[in-house]
Hints:
Chain A is an alpha/beta fold.
Amino acid sequence: MTSPPYGSPIKSPQLGAIESSIVFPKRKGGSPASSLSNLPYRRSNQSLSSLFASTSSLPGSGPSSGTATPTATVARDSVFSPGGTLRPRSPAGAPVVDSSGLRDVLIRSFAPHVAVLASADTDEVIRQKGFPGGFLQLIRPFGQQVQGKVTVRDSIGASKSFEDFGIRFTGLKDGLNPPKPPPQPRRSAEVGEKAVNGGAEPWVESFPAWARTGGDVAQIEELVDRHLSYAEMQYGGSMSDYLKHDGDAAGRAHTSGAPSPFYTLYFRRLLSALPMSPHETFSHPVACIIAISSRNPSPIEDLRRLYNATNTGDLRLPQWVNNEFLRYYVLVHDEDHDDISKSTALYEQMKRHFGLHCHLLRLRSLHVLPSDDDSVRLPTTEWISAMEELTEIHRRGNSETDADPTPCLFDSDVSALRTLVRELTMQSIIPSMERSLTAWNEQVLSRRRGLSGRFMSLSKRWTPFGSSSRNSSGPLAGLQASGGGTSGNYDSLQGFYRPESAEATMRKLADYAVMLRDFKLAASTYDLLRADFNGDKAWRYYAGANEMAAIATLLDAHLRSGAEKSTSTKSRLEAVDGWLETASYSYVTRCMAPFYGLRTLAVGGELLKMRGTSTGGDEAAKWGSKILEDRLVGPVGRPLFMERISASFGSKLGRGELRWGGRRRKAAFWAVLAVENWLKMDKVVQAGKMLESVSELYGLTDAGGVAVQEDEEKGGGAEKAKPRELKFAEMKDFIEELREAVVARKLAAHGYEGEESPEADETTLVEEVSEKLDARPHRMSLIGIAAPPPMAGMDVTPLSPLKVRDEEPNFRDDSFE
Amino acid sequence: MSYYFAIVGTQDNPLFEHEFGTSKQGGDGVARFREEARHMNQFIVHSSLDIVDEVQWNGGQMYLKHIDRFHNNYIFCFITAGSVKFLLLHNPDTHTPPNASSRSSAATARTSAYGQSASTTYNPTAPAVEEAIKNFFVEVYDVWVKTIMNPFFKLDMKVTSPVFRGRVAAAARKHL
């Protein structure tokens, strides 16, 4: 395409037709598209809409349903949920290449997990306060951002501070349960009705521990689908508004490379609530909070009992989890009922018994109403699993009241909880992680990396002899064992390394390094591990090490400024491609773990795109299309990833006047595919948005949605200026068809209103449009039934543009100015 | 195996389009593109013009070989002296739709023979493939030059000559 001249622009005929024909009376909240009518949340419910708004993470979106829908404009600079209390995060001291902020989502997703284990009496106190989920529900939102700066010392002793450091509170065994589908179909309304009618118990019922485990692509798809349907309904009410402001919004969003809010949601849920697995330790607990309350008659004994339960009892995590995590003891003091002096005495006693990792948490136990003075709503939790959010949506959709069911707590409670989280993080978790890092670094990693380590790994690889002593304890013994036989530490029958073995320790070391954001150390460690796992044929571990090696290397490269980039990083960056390939192959083909494969490719692609170098966009698009080719995503993910591929290509603008090396046509192609897929799913709003960027990318319209005129340099100047169009006939027809399908669906959504409307003008307009569309037999099928008959011989002239144009003379005539 | 051949002018406008199947290994020379996805060919070819624009400056060759891929559609390019591009879309597998390659289709492709090699192992850079397509391009170029020597032919004008079409078809039968 040559450079488009911007002579006196006229409206594109199609757009003109749309705008003039859509003058329907607006209806509040109603006007559901036919496909949505079976969804149980048709009532426009305030609490529900605020939920949708908060989970698609839009700042400043109030409870009013109008502003709650995510729009591309608002979402651009909004990656974090408002949460009420969250502070703007720091970009971790690095220049932000991409405004998408997906990198921050990514960095924050690798946060230390802290298990929460509360005694029955503690949960009782909290439940009286109005938190049916107990202590875990109360403390969970406060972990997502630790107040103030968090300073971490890395392996070479330099300290870095982060403002957006967070920890995740989970139930002790949350990540273990594989996410199960609920026993009954979720979509049927009766089921939800029953759950709500139950009264107080259903909260616990509808939030069982298994719902808190993520890692299921199907659930993510369903969740995003819910959000999309909701957005459709929102736009359904005010279509002309949408057409007016979104034409340029979509265009701008596209050029800035910002992901759609739904993609961000998809990405975030992909990284939320990772299930516990032997091959990676991100979701293994780094620490465990053991909480008792001041009501407990025998506090010290109970603490001991709970502690023992995590070690030997039924709460012991499976044997592939390293059980030597930190225990943190919290005494919940009930301000309203109990005596503080007694609690202080008990606290002193606790300190004597259990050391310094103790905290006295002073909470008020009264039930707080939203109307009370100094009451604060519990902030929303960002990092919940898709299933959990779905359950929440369902619950709110079925509730009769419009009131926000989020429980409230006192202002003083909030600050007490914040202090707890801060102290826990700063004084216990981070120091203990740093200590473990240093110890493992000295005992395991440096030996492995040093001369003897190399020799050992050599001998490990080449000598068949050697003792494989399994009864090793401690990392050192494990290391010696690893010097022995080939499959020294890997239990290939059960498929995991024992947590004391050198490999598992190194993996944990690298994971800790990622959590503490020391990506350089992490990257080099993962790189070492790759060879070990490959030798042991521990494919899941091997895939994990490859995945994280690539991610850590890319993140490391991101966080450095240009001057610091060393040659070693550069050579590693070249290997990233291969690592991603290996990781996805191992995950998908060898281990049948498509979720992890999807995570690898999505994260890797995003990071490559963010590099913003000349090849980054191409590589990101390559991995994106691999996701689609491997069928790692479902029907919702397909168009989202197509949009993303389009954006990756679009981010490569090319050089010079002729835009050499640009990828505009490719971007447009993928955008067309996305439109097609959105339409297949009946997501008209998304389709319309993408269609705008298609027109813009093909150069048919400029950024304002105005048709660009044909370049008339060789024709006579006196000729009437034509709007620019695609030269390939079938492409033009197909885009035209998509456009008409979008309009037709929108009209169909409003159809009954149009017929009711008394104004003669509008009805005639509507009829005109729908007649014309009905006349075209291929309108619904979308895909080339209109295409010319297949060429049997070569003398048939194929693909005549005239033929199709003749079919719709009406359209051209009446809408062209 | 199905082929879609397009000649694209300097304004990204198609000058000539032709679809055909393989005539080797007992093929009947009829394209087997799926009917509802035939418009995809144009989209794919059009999108790979981006790559053509980039790689045409990398060397002095007119035959750019394999330049692009969309699922299992492989694009080959030949660029003429007048910056008119010959683009050949090659879909090695006849049974799967060109726009939907899945693992299952890859599995069927593994069993379905493409010459001696299955289409998953189809290598667009194999010397035999490259050579055959090069010969095809060169022959078409020959015909093309003769066509545009017509004094009534203007730049970026569509070629409608049945003789030209016949010659292209003959070249296709001969080489592909």
